Hints:
alpha+beta, Pyridine nucleotide-disulfide oxidoreductase family protein
Amino acid sequence: MTEDLTLIDQHGDAHHPLWTLGPLLRGTLWECTAVPDIRGQAADLARTVAARLRAAPAVRS
């Protein structure tokens, strides 16, 4: 897992946009099962996703 909660594969490569939070992080972050901790992770992840969406080029349909 990277700092922005992006999952990494067995080779250490991050695959965007695939993130995780909560109990799945127990191997890395022991304090990840309480609601306040998960709420903070979700808020951080929402900021990350929003920043990437703002930076992405507009898609026309």
